[in-house]
Amino acid sequence: MLSAGVALAGLAPAAHADPIYPAPDPDPFYAQPADVADHNPGDVLAVRPMPPLLMFPETAVTMVKFRSTNSEGGPIAAITTVLTPREHQPGGPLLSYQHIINGLGAQCAVSRVLYTNDPNLQVKEAVALNVALRRGWSVALPDHLGPNFAYGAAKLGGQITLDGVRAVKRVPELGVADSRVAMAGYSGGGMATAWAAALAPTYAPELEFAGAATGGVPMNLEKMVSQLGWQPHPAFGLAMAAAIGLEREYPDRLPISTQMNGAGLAARNAMANGCTNEIMAIGAGHSAREFAAGTSMLDDPTALSVLRENSLELFDGVPNMPIFEWHSASDPLIPVDAIVNTDNRYCAAGVRLDEDVNPSPEHLSAAVLGLPSALDWIDARMRGVPAPTTC
Predict the structure, then answer these.
(1) What number does CATH give the domain 3-22+221-309?
(2) Which residues form the signal peptide (predicted)?
(3) In 3-state terms, what secondary structure has residue 259?
(4) Is the Cβ–Cβ distance between 34 and 67 less than 8 Å?
């Protein structure tokens, strides 16, 4: 039996199985406007003040809806939530923090998690973000998976992050039009951050960044899927969620549902609107071999190209800003060699890169160990101190 009560449903291939998309958010603020294509990336579509949050005292909360671009160049609307502390002065620093979103459903969005009472859905970095707020920084928290919650679509996350920065700088009441800007994120949030940094020179060349801090970034999805997918693994749910999310973003190029057997479709349907706990529980101890009706897609160049297009190790662009990169040398969830290869390529291209390899034996504790150093590094960049390098 599958965990979380999902029953095995036979091994026959799915003759026809369309992608499964998340249930729409009932709040009309999240809806895709009919005229979204009439706007340019970063254009502000709507602004909504939100109730204050106990976890961020003396801080105003504002949701900004803006136009962005999906992975295949189409127009989408996305959301970022801006925290403006009492200490903020006009032109004071702006940090775009890409929170970890291991989710496939609307309730997993950061803008939703901020206002939920579910103890399983928390902004775990609230303490660190409060440090930033008390320094007078504004903090933007984008919903970087997009309207279809395309978990795994890393390039999409980078584009949404950049357009979110564009948008909040265009909202006069936020007072960040002339602000120094930095970005940060870990794991899935690190993917969005690292891609934003790499895409910035071509996707948003008008933006200037003081730097970007990226931690625990899965920089090669092809390697990661291979690592987590074909043998039973406690974190297999993350690999399956990435397959579901990428199919949502690339339904014609990666029709993974058509390759699932009945058990696979049952698991897919069970996690289609889930967040971290549901995804991990449903997938724990399972593998793609149990859920696949065949393996032809493993050799399909079109399908593989989707994974490669979202693998930063294989992207030829380099950031035009200093980078702080941290990870565990023995991280069991992500291919560390892909991080090392990417760091080396950035160094060879002249990027001011500060690599911090910490002693944590696994993925999540590495975030905790590295985040204080990342914030100190960002603080120095915000103050205009030249960036160090370990290249």
Answers:
(1) 1.10.260
(2) 1-17
(3) helix
(4) no
Sites in the chain below the pLDDT cut of 70: 1-16, 226-230, 295-299
**Where are the CATH 3.40.50.1820 domain residues in the chain?**
28-219+317-382
Inter-CA distances, 338 with 102, 155, 176, Å: 21, 16, 35
28-219+317-382, CATH topology level: Rossmann fold (3.40.50)
pLDDT per residue over 324-363, tens digit each? 999 999 888 888 999 999 999 999 999 999 999 988 888 8
Q: Alpha carbon 88 to chain centroid distance?
A: 26
Ranges of H-type helices in the chain: 110-113, 126-134, 154-169, 188-203, 221-229, 236-249, 262-271, 276-283, 288-291, 301-309, 336-348, 363-382
| Distance between CA atoms of residues 293 and 261, nearest Å | 5
Using an 8 Å Cβ cutoff, are 193 and 214 in contact? Answer: yes
Cβ neighbour number for residue 120 with a 10 Å cutoff? 10
Q: Cα 159 to the chain's mean position, in Å?
A: 11
Calpha distance 43→243 (Å, rounded): 30
DSSP-assigned letter for residue 257: G
Q: Compute the distance between CA of residue 228 and CA of residue 206 in angstroms, rounded to an integer.
A: 39
- Residues 276, 149: Cα–Cα separation, whole Å: 13
